[in-house]
């Protein structure tokens, strides 16, 4: 009595899912993956360009601010020199602080009113 292993019988009505390629699922997976990759690429690119523009604007604003500050300091020094300096020595013009210049003008006007 020899027992032979029973061979499985295959029912022709049962689909074998492991052997079949599900084309609709494969197409949808490829499309979704492609969309996600493209969205990631465009997102990274948009972030890069936004960051680059922000850096460019920041540098230009800082440069303009530095230029403005240096111009203001130069003008302030010309209007309010730390010490008297000659503007035109031949004509006898001297640069002094505005406050001091106003005091001199007021003193001169008061002297001319007294006379």
Strand content: 5-15%
How many individual helices? 2
DSSP E strands, number: 2
- Biggest sheet: strands, sense, closure? 2 strands, antiparallel
Give the tags.
single chain; 115 residues; mainly alpha; two-stranded antiparallel ribbon; 2 helices; 2 strands; 64% helix
Summarize the SSE layout with pairings.
Layout: H1 23-79, E1 85-88, E2 93-95, H2 98-114
Antiparallel strand pairs: 1-2
Describe it.
This protein has 115 residues and is mainly alpha-helical. It is built from two helices and two strands; from the N terminus they run αββα. The protein has a two-stranded antiparallel ribbon with strand order 1-2. A hairpin with a 4-residue loop joins β1 and β2. The longest helix is centred in the middle third of the chain and has 57 residues, at 23-79.
Question: What does this entry show, briefly?
Answer:
With 115 residues, this protein is mostly helical. It is 64% helix and 6% strand.
């Amino acid at each position: 009595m020899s027992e032979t292993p029973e061979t499985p019988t295959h029912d022709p009505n049962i689909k074998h899912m492991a052997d079949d390629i599900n084309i609709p699922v494969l197409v949808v997976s490829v499309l979704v993956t492609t969309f996600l990759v493209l969205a990631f690429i465009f997102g990274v690119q948009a972030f890069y360009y936004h960051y680059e523009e922000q850096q460019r604007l920041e540098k230009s604003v800082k440069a303009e601010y530095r230029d403005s500050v240096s111009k203001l300091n130069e003008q302030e020094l010309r209007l309010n020199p730390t010490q008297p300096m000659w503007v035109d020595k031949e004509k006898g013009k001297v640069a002094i602080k505005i406050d001091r210049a106003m005091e001199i003008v007021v003193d001169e006007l008061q002297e001319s009113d007294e006379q």
